[in-house]
Design goal:
This protein is mainly beta. Helix content is 0%, strand content 48%. The protein contains no helices and 9 strands. The chain has a 4-stranded antiparallel beta sheet, with no helix packed on it. The protein is globular, with a radius of gyration of 14 Å. The two termini are 26 Å apart.
């Protein structure tokens, strides 16, 4: 799959591949230089991992998520952007699919 076409806004792209086993890539863009945080949540809404929490330049970025140590299931991710002189902005949640340990029966969300 090609990289998403991000504009001059803060955006959160769909992860790829989806579903995944056990690695996937999350793409996002920042409208301006800012502190970016990418967090992973389980289906109960509990934070299971912070993938990124640092200053980043404006533009398109990607980060790899390795769910090898997590149980099979549906996980959500959220991008939070904050910069000097602006309010924190949330790009939203996405449904990244399934994290399946090797040789596991696929989990299906119904």
């Amino acid at each position: 799959a090609g990289a998403p076409a991000f504009g001059n806004t803060t955006e959160l792209g769909q992860n790829y591949p989806n579903p995944f086993n056990p690695r996937t890539t999350i793409r996002f863009a920042l409208a301006e230089s800012a502190r970016a945080r990418v967090e992973i949540f389980n289906a109960r809404g509990q934070l299971v991992e912070t993938l990124l929490d640092r200053e980043m330049a404006a533009g398109a970025h990607s980060i790899d998520f390795n769910a090898e140590r997590l149980a099979s299931g549906v996980y959500f991710y959220k991008l939070t952007e904050s910069c000097v002189g602006c309010h924190a902005r949330y790009a939203g949640h996405r449904f990244p699919g399934y994290a399946q340990p090797p040789q596991a029966t696929p989990a299906h969300a119904h």
